[in-house]
């Protein structure tokens, strides 16, 4: 089967910014494959979106489990015949530690989710996007991952992982130049979520805006860039 709607796969779509991204994509008449580690939570997001009159389905995907990435992509292709958009939203932080004294196991978990998880999801969708000659890959980075702005020491493993994720954006964009697949990083700003905390100034809807803009870029849109509020951000 080949869906007439564009299809977007969103990781960590069960809560926070990922949930808002899923909603903003769905309201643009894109079928959202809402993925989450817990399939019931993925299904709950999909049910919410369908209840609002939009197209969505829920699929289990843990970015640290390669087989779930492969299965989610295969399920989407079997059902829709296409994956137009990947939003690598899933992310975790190491919170309060200092870079001169890190918990290596925690840093490795952050790396596994934020860098290798996102990278493997991209790897899994590229073949179908290449065949279609169309793709949008959005990596949820952070201003905390900007080397230019990296003047503080908080959340060191998170910062390092987001700088590395930006490098993944650059190398993938370089490889895929001219294929119709655009790869970009987004900083959502400081957003009120479990990760961002209650004092963050932004809503999840505001945080979702730039990622959704990058996920729906026209064919002559940028690739290999880093954006905040739809404007280039220093690496
Ligand atoms: N909030 C901010 O201020 C802010 C600022 C800059 C960048 N960001 C980035 O924006 C993205 C979303 O952040 P958020 O604030 O919405 O965070 P959040 O509310 O803590 O949500 C994190 C999401 O990631 C999912 N996740 C964690 N580990 C996963 C795994 N192994 N496989 C699949 N999903 C996994 C979580 O699923 P579970 O429910 O199963 O844990 C949850 O859906 C992250 O990449 C974050 O780094 C956020």
Automatic annotation (TrEMBL):
Keywords: NADP, Oxidoreductase
InterPro entries per record: CBR1-like, NAD(P)-bd_dom_sf, SDR_fam
Top-level division of the source organism's lineage: Bacteria
Short name of any one Pfam family annotated for the protein: adh_short
Gene Ontology terms for molecular function: oxidoreductase activity, acting on the CH-OH group of donors, NAD or NADP as acceptor
Family as reported in the entry's similarity comment: Belongs to the short-chain dehydrogenases/reductases (SDR) family.
Protein known as: Short-chain alcohol dehydrogenase
Organism: Saccharomonospora marina XMU15
């Amino acid at each position: 089967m080949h869906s007439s709607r564009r299809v977007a796969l969103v990781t960590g779509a069960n809560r926070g910014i990922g949930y808002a991204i899923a909603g903003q994509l769905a309201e643009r008449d894109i079928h959202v494959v809402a993925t989450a580690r817990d399939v019931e939570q993925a299904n709950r997001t999909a049910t919410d979106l369908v209840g609002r009159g939009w197209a969505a389905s829920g699929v289990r995907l843990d970015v640290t489990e390669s087989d779930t990435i492969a299965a989610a992509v295969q399920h989407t292709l079997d059902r829709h015949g296409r994956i137009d958009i990947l939003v690598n939203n899933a992310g975790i932080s190491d919170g309060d530690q200092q870079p001169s004294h890190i918990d290596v196991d925690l840093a490795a978990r952050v790396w596994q989710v934020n860098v290798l998880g996102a990278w493997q999801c991209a790897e899994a969708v590229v073949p179908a996007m290449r065949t279609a000659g169309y793709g949008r890959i959005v990596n949820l980075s952070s201003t905390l991952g900007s080397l230019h702005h990296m003047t503080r020491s908080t959340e060191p493993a998170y910062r390092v992982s987001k700088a590395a994720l930006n490098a993944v954006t650059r190398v993938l964009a370089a490889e895929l130049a001219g294929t119709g697949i655009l790869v970009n990083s987004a900083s959502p700003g400081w957003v009120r979520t479990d990760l961002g905390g209650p004092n963050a100034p932004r809503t999840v809807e505001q945080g979702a805006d730039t990622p959704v803009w990058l996920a729906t870029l026209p064919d002559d849109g940028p690739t290999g860039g880093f954006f905040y509020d739809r404007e280039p951000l220093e690496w």
